[in-house]
């Protein structure tokens, strides 16, 4: 069953953000997409602080698509903070990055990433990959009620 909970996309590259949003649209993923462009903004969104103060934090994303190479706080630190807090510890977090570094993959999984996906360079493969991710995480995966 599809969820109407939002998707959190944490992406600092405007081109990758635009491609991801286009892929969601082309694959008929209609969930609200919340975009944060650095690690601090992502943390503030999730915990309702900073510019997101007052946000209803009982409504958490269905899934977080998290880049690793982010300004201010990198993606691994964002993941560490997500897993360290009981309010967000069970959120599905998919690493969506260009990094092929074995250390990044190992560290992401050791910190509790649910999946690690390298962004395909080819546009059609990117569309397909994002469509498959959306279908799985929004339609097939069972979420913990927030």
From TrEMBL:
Kindly list the positions at which 4-aspartylphosphate occurs in this protein.
Answer: 67
**SUPFAM superfamilies given for it?**
CheY-like
Q: Does the keyword Phosphoprotein apply?
A: yes
Q: Which InterPro entries match?
A: CheY-like_superfamily, Sig_transdc_resp-reg_receiver, TCS_response_regulator
Q: Which domain of life is it from?
A: Bacteria
Q: Which UniProt keywords apply?
A: Phosphoprotein
Pfam families to which the protein is assigned, alphabetical: Response_reg
Specify the protein name.
Response regulator
Q: Which PANTHER family match?
A: RESPONSE REGULATOR RCP1-RELATED, TWO-COMPONENT SYSTEM REGULATORY PROTEIN
- Asked if the Swiss-Prot or TrEMBL record annotates the protein with the keyword Phosphoprotein, the reply is yes
Q: Which residues form the Response regulatory domain?
A: 6-134
């Amino acid at each position: 069953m599809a969820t109407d909970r939002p998707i959190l996309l944490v992406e600092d590259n405007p081109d990758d953000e635009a491609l991801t949003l286009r892929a969601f649209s082309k694959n008929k993923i209609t969930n609200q997409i919340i975009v944060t462009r650095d690690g601090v903004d992502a943390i503030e969104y999730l915990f309702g602080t900073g510019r997101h103060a007052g946000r209803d934090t009982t409504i958490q994303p269905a899934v977080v698509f998290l880049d690793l190479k982010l300004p201010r706080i990198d993606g691994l630190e964002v993941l560490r903070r997500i897993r360290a807090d009981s309010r967000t510890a069970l959120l599905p977090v998919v690493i969506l990055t260009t990094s092929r570094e074995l250390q990044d993959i190992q560290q992401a999984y050791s910190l509790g990433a649910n999946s690690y996906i390298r962004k395909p360079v080819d546009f059609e493969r990117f569309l397909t990959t994002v469509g498959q991710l959306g279908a799985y995480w929004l339609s097939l995966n069972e979420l913990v009620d927030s």
